[in-house]
TrEMBL record:
Protein name in the entry: Peptidase A1 domain-containing protein
GO cellular component, one term: vacuole
Organism: Sorghum bicolor
Domain Saposin B-type: 167-207, 226-267
Keyword Disulfide bond part of the UniProt annotation: yes
InterPro entries assigned: Aspartic_peptidase_A1 (IPR001461), Aspartic_peptidase_AS (IPR001969), PEPTIDASE_A1 (IPR033121), Peptidase_aspartic_dom_sf (IPR021109), SapB_1 (IPR007856), SapB_2 (IPR008138), Saposin-like (IPR011001), SaposinB_dom (IPR008139)
């Protein structure tokens, strides 16, 4: 472990990693990282790339490299999700601690510098595709984000699968009620999914993409009128298309879409679940570098103690980043707690391995 700089964390404390200069991510962190509201901090240890550094200040890992203080051009995280453990985690500069992972790391290249961004694939619920990112989505890994943030279209499916309680979106249910059969018929007729909502008049389309505002979190668009109906339609298309692949009947497909409308997240993104049902929930899996990285219910459900009672929170929240940066997943501490993570700035890549 020569020339390694190690930082130990206390249980339950998230180490803020990336310099947050983009408004959309700052807003997100305020919503999903209660640590930033409750905790007392002297500042943020920016571990992003220099491209987003405030005032052009070099990130600490770059300064360490320039001063030849590290043996390898990497830093690595081990986050211990056991609240009763004496050590909450470990950040190692200059290498990895072999005591904290097993097997080999799976590496994926950084596709965009700034945050540690890479390309990922589908999210699977109990081994079944959720559809929206089947063709690929961008993702960033961020230790300063407590939960997992992703497209509303997928998070609604997750909430449905795990029984999370969100808000009822009147507009979403209205779209399914009034246009569900029409969407179904168009998809059966092999209409391009990207053009379905245009053909039924809920979205304006220029032949390449929707001209309404790119998909945003439905709960943030309650007063956006037609934009919200377009968004609800685009989500319904994904849901219905997935059910068609499963050869479900029309009645089952429309009932499923209607149920997903009821699982849209609350305005602040939080969704609660029944703690007694955790063992019955499905495994969820991210597809990265053509491999699946599974999260068990015990890993993606966050337990909080409030007034002597245990409250269980879904580790997933909806947050829609518009193109061209999105659709985007933000893999925070829920994911990093399940997988030892290596940030390799020498080779511009990120590695994941099972923790020891």
């Amino acid at each position: 472990m020569e020339n390694l700089v190690q930082s130990h964390m206390v249980p339950g404390k998230s180490l803020a990693s990336s310099v947050r200069t983009m408004c959309w991510l700052v807003t997100l962190l305020c919503k999903i990282s209660p640590t930033f509201i409750i905790g007392k901090f002297d500042g943020i240890l920016g571990l992003g790339f220099p491209e987003i550094s405030v005032g052009g200040a070099p990130p600490i890992w770059q300064s360490m490299k320039e001063q030849k203080l590290v043996a390898e051009d990497v830093f690595s995280f081990w986050l211990n999700r056991d609240p009763d453990a004496s050590a909450g985690g470990e950040l190692v500069f200059g290498g990895v601690d072999p005591k904290h992972y097993k097997g080999n790391h799976t590496y994926v290249p950084v596709t965009r510098k700034g945050y540690w961004q890479f390309d990922m694939g589908d999210l699977l619920i109990g081994g079944h595709s959720t559809g929206y990112c089947a063709g690929g989505c961008a993702a960033i890994v961020d230790s300063g984000t407590s939960l997992l943030a992703g497209p509303t279209t997928i998070v609604a499916q997750v909430n449905h699968a795990i029984g999370a309680e969100g808000i009822i979106s009147t507009e979403c249910k209205e779209v399914v009620r009034e246009y569900g059969e029409m969407i179904l018929e168009l998809l059966i007729a092999q209409t391009s999914p990207q053009k379905v909502c245009t053909q039924i008049g809920l979205c304006v389309f220029d032949g390449a993409h929707s001209l309404s505002n790119p998909i945003e979190s439905v709960v943030e668009k309650q007063n956006r009128g037609s934009d919200l109906f377009c968004t609800a339609c685009e989500m319904a298309v994904v849901w219905i298309q997935n059910q068609l692949r499963e050869n479900k009947t029309k009645e089952l497909i429309l009932n499923y879409a209607n149920q997903l409308c009821e699982r849209l997240p609350s305005p602040n993104g939080e969704s609660t679940v029944d703690c007694d049902q955790i063992s019955e929930m499905p495994n969820l899996a991210f597809t990265i570098a053509n491999k699946t990285f599974t999260l068990t219910p015990e890993q993606y459900i966050v337990k909080l103690e409030q007034a002597g009672q245990t409250i269980c929170i879904s580790g997933f929240m909806a947050y829609d980043v518009p193109p061209p940066r999105g659709p985007l997943w933000i893999l925070g501490d829920v994911f990093m707690g399940a997988y030892h993570t290596v940030f390799d700035f020498g080779e511009n890549r990120i590695g994941f391995a099972k923790p020891a």
